[in-house]
Amino acid sequence: SVKGNDKKLAAEAATDYVKDGMTVGLGSGSTAEWMLKRLGALVKDGLNIKGIPTSVKTESLARKHGIPLTDFSKTATVDLAIDGADEIDGQLNLLKGGGGSLVREKIIDAAAEKLIIIADQSKMVQQLGSFPLPIEVVPFGWEMTKKQIAAYGAEPKLRKEENRVFVSDNGNYILDCSFGKMVNPESLHDTLKSMAGVVETGLFIGMTDQAMIGQNGKVEMIGD
Length: 224
Ligand code: DER
Description:
Elements: H1 2-15, E1 23-26, H2 30-44, E2 50-53, H3 56-64, E3 78-83, E4 87-88, E5 94-95, H4 102-111, E6 112-120, E7 133-137, H5 142-150, E8 157-158, E9 160-161, E10 164-165, E11 173-177, H6 185-193, E12 198-201, E13 203-204, E14 210-215, E15 218-223
Parallel strand pairs: 1-2, 1-3, 3-6, 6-14
Antiparallel strand pairs: 4-5, 5-13, 7-11, 7-12, 8-11, 9-10, 14-15
Helix pairs in contact: 1-2
The chain binds D-4-phosphoerythronic acid.
Residues 27-32, 83-86, 96-99, 101-102, 105 line the site of D-4-phosphoerythronic acid (DER).
């Protein structure tokens, strides 16, 4: 219960940065769900925003909470994105994708003027990589892509959901790759991203402006 509360506190602290008239990138995951709930209440109280969801699941939750939605055919700017993470290091580099939404998350988070990450203390790490790195790959030739990635020391595992291969919102597969602690996550991302068949990795390097970290009933803000 305390843990859940810390996620809720972090999410609500981030929503303080949502101003009238904003287009807001809506993140995915359990911490982001607290953000959606809070934004729904603020919209009900008259806050005028439009959300761009980072997953089909977030889209349906946003609709449930009455948050008006838009998309990139209607808007060229995202004023603020609020998203979760699986790991956050001291430079606010992230490992994301535990929920399988990393491709749309990265498109929206990268487009945002400002990116605020919300999490509890359990996500803070010295070095990224203890959590398996999710890599989205094209289904065609995924076994070959897996082999290429394995050559870099990971054991890529095809993500399954209830014994069926997990298919992302974009119709792709996800390989969860245990690289272990990463000395240089940026160069690892660049190497992986250049491989044929790789759509995106869960390494979000140099993208985060601020993090709201909940711990023991308090929220610490990291970043500018
Ligand atoms: O997949 C992701 O990157 C999501 O942001 C998610 O992993 C965040 O985790 P949470 O459910 O603990 O917020």
